[in-house]
Amino acid sequence: MGICENRTVIITGAAGGLGRAYALAFGAEGANVVVNDIGTSLGGEGRDTSAADAVVAEIKAAGGKAIANYEDITDWDAAKRIVDAAIEAFGDLHVVVNNAGIVRDRMFVSATVEEWDATMHVHLRGHFCIARHAVNYWRAKQKDGRDPDARIINTSSGAGLQGSIAQAAYSTAKGGIASLTLVQAAELGRYGITANALAPSARTRMTEGAFAEKMKAVEEGFDVMDPANVAPTVVWLGSAQSAHVTGCVFELEGGKIMLEDGWREGPFVDQQARWEPAQVGEVVDKLIEARVPPRKVWGTA
């Protein structure tokens, strides 16, 4: 018996890459899987339902239970239909894995408002809509005296945690998702809901273009960038075993599981009086010298 036996999970963007790896892993651990994917291009254009169907067929061929869903997570009403479809098919809902996303790489000086809005729409609105409907369901379930034991698993990124050259919109959206996760964890625990986020590093169509050399598959030995390496932690976070873990961001790559430390209070000076503008520069220089050096923005020397 798997650790997610009879738990129902919705995975967005589940037709390829990390989402597909999550779907297969959840299915192997006994979960009922809703494979949500509208089949767009990397930039968010077009529609193709065949990839989601293929993942469902793969799960079923291995003895698992799954349905395909092609609703748009950024549409408020459609997002509710995804939640409703999970409950109708499997009788309950336990986990939402917000994985779907797009990227519009562009240096900030060349970025357009259309690209900015499209990126925010998919990542931030998409994360909001489906989780909000799921929370409505879980709150109602709790009021009926049933323990939801529910999970929200969001997807941030190294770009969101430290920034990435030519990805201002993507980095901003992913940073926002990390903050959203903290708020969800703080507010929703009373309803039996945990919220955690991932910053995964693996071979996907998004990373193959940006980091081609690093993402190459290996012919022998451990394939560090195989998306399947990330899936076990995601499945555990979706299980009943993770009920005590919330408000965390996990950076995952190969066999590495790293817990992000988040924003911490750093060095400070308090003179218990108002500063003169001319005094501030020397103080700030000393604080920068005393701080723990931050990680460099991706793509910088």
From TrEMBL:
Q: Which UniProt keywords apply?
A: Oxidoreductase
InterPro entries in the record: KR_dom, NAD(P)-bd_dom_sf, Peroxisomal_Beta-Oxidation, Sc_DH/Rdtase_CS, SDR_fam
Q: Which PROSITE patterns does the UniProt entry name for this protein? A: ADH_SHORT
Query: Where does the record place the Ketoreductase domain?
Result: 7-201
* Keyword check for Oxidoreductase: yes
Its family? Answer: Belongs to the short-chain dehydrogenases/reductases (SDR) family.
**What protein does this entry describe?**
SDR family oxidoreductase
